[in-house]
Amino acid sequence: MERTKIDLWVGIFVALGVAALLGLAMKVGNLTSNNLGKTYSVSAAFENVGGLKPNAPVKSAGVVVGRVADIKFDSKTYEAIVNINIDQRYAFPTDTFANIYTAGLLGEQYVGLEAGGEDDSLKNGDKITQTQGAVVLEKMISKFLFNKASESESKSETVDAAPEN
Amino acid sequence: MIARVWRLGAGARLFFLTIIYSGESFRRFHLTLREIYFTGVMSLLIIIVSAFFVGMVLALQGYNTLQKYGSSEAIGVLVALSLVRELGPVVTALLFAGRAGTAITAEIGLMKTTEQLSAMEMMAVNPIARVVAPRFWAGVISMPILAALFSMVGVLGGYLVAVPLIGVDSGAFWSQMQANVDVRADIINGVIKSVVFAVACTMIALFEGFDAPPTAEGVSHATTRTVVISSLTVLGLDFVLTSFMMVV
Question: How many domains, in total, are found in chain B?
Fold first, then answer.
């Protein structure tokens, strides 16, 4: 086969490869959905972050407005400090409420922001004071079972006590 | 046993010599280009057809299990992650060893048998620079491209089964995939795997050809060994690389 034809085929081959890689990055991967543009950073202290991971979405009204930058443990307050990058386009009041929610019953965890009523907006480096940590399923179930047990105990007590009176 | 260790050392020596003498394969790039044509372009058909079927089977089998948990939308994630992280690089390497590796071994083994390599040395042409290095670089360049194509075509095959055939929502298929496939952790790691497999497969094929006894039987044994050793090396390396890339 002559050389120019080989060159042409190899060119097509390499172009196909680059196209496949680009397709993987754009269509299959999260290269397009991950960019936030310019962000500002705020932090929030949670009692328990559950399974929250860095790069998890930060949503408000269901729309992704930012990403979790990192999660650290504060050894003084024994709380988890979560740094959040929020897109510059979105401003939130200083009394915004931060929750950790789970997408679906078993889905990944994300930070939900609920706007408050203050006039001032959160700035870079600010701290969100009102937070609620992740709901730990085991804790909830054990609480539920404990309540049930104490309920039936108090019931049986009243039943036991009845004949005496 | 001693012979195995000796062969391992000789293989490592050939690898270093190939790296040292690979200047010529870039200065006279048409040599490498020719080999890319034979190892890469000619492997396109087998890679694309197998990728298509692998993707379709993955979608069918995945649906079988996922629908029990009512999450058949996650089928796109399953297909994409299995292909990009694992099957793309590994199956491409196995096919590459069978399709291109054997050809390299047989070609170099025959060159040695017919004393073409000795003739080159007589003419003061270094056979490693002229014959081995261009084939090595052609393999290293071709295989990541083939692996990326494999993953992409496989995803398209999975899409064809999941969306028109099974009836998964097309938007959910792509958006769940994009939400769960990370460019750095999944796609780049897949590319790294395929580069490592390319070096291993091509080097084994070259060494087996270079080391083949100059008889018809010797070349045939060498070709068989290329397939066996490349496949085992790829599967072993895959485990090692995956455990390195695992984020705890």
Answer: 1
| Distance of residue B172 Cα from the nearest chain A Cα, in angstroms | 12
Residue closest to B97 by CA, chosen among B48, B142, B152, B164: B142
Check CB contact under 8 Å for A17 and B44.
no
CA dist B242 → B120, B186, B229 (Å): 42, 11, 20
* pLDDT value of position A135: 80
ipTM value: 0.82
For chain B, say whether A32 makes contact (Cβ under 8 Å).
yes
Could you read off the pLDDT of A42-72 as tens digits, one per residue? 999 998 888 888 878 888 888 888 888 889 9
Distance from CA of B217 to the nearest CA of A (A): 30
pLDDT digits (tens, 9 = 90+) for B43-63: 999 999 999 999 999 999 999
Residue B182 contacts residue A54 (beta carbons within 8 Å): no
Which structural domain range is residue B52 located in?
Answer: 2-245
Total Cβ atoms within 10 A of residue B174: 17
B67 shares contact with chain A (CB less than 8 Å): no
Contact state of B40 with A29 under an 8 Å Cβ cutoff: no
In this prediction, residue A17 carries a pLDDT of 92
CA distance B183 to chain A (A): 5
